[in-house]
Design a protein that fits this description.
A four-stranded antiparallel beta sheet has the order 1-2-3-4, with helices on one face. With 136 residues, the protein is of the alpha+beta class.
């Protein structure tokens, strides 16, 4: 096999992102209701999924400075990016689309405006779904 053949064999591996799984789980117990809030976060994805008690997962960025209207966009694999709306109706519609994609997806990318800069994240989904399931 010549050098060109070796290079062509390696090309798919070079173009695909290679990241380590960095999803971390933390929990907090509400002292008044005893409900547990479980948070699953990734520094690489720059996003956290959280569950309050047995509610379905929701999502947020690590930033407190995301401006209204700029919103968080999430893209799973090569699917169309999903805008996580700022009001409850938009958010629920976006979650209806996002959560099924997490079950079969391999990669998550995020994008949001964080005053004064733009932030983006990119990470493998890895065991995110299992961690979210274990949070309930």
């Amino acid at each position: 096999m010549n050098r060109l053949s070796h290079a062509l064999l390696l090309l798919p591996f070079l173009s695909a992102p290679s990241f380590a799984c960095d999803w971390q789980v933390s929990t907090q117990v509400d002292p008044m209701t005893d409900k547990v809030t479980c948070v699953v976060s990734s520094a690489s994805a720059k996003v956290s999924f959280y569950r309050y008690g047995s509610d379905r997962p929701n999502v947020r960025t690590a930033s407190a400075y995301v401006r209204s209207g700029d919103g968080l966009e999430i893209r799973i694999d090569e699917n169309q990016a999903i805008l996580m709306g700022n009001n409850a109706y938009q958010r629920q519609k976006a979650l209806d689309e996002l959560l099924p994609q997490l079950k079969s997806g391999k990669r998550i990318r995020t994008s949001f405006r964080d005053v004064p800069n733009h932030q983006s994240g990119d990470a493998p989904i890895c065991n995110l779904q299992q961690l979210l399931n274990d949070c309930s």
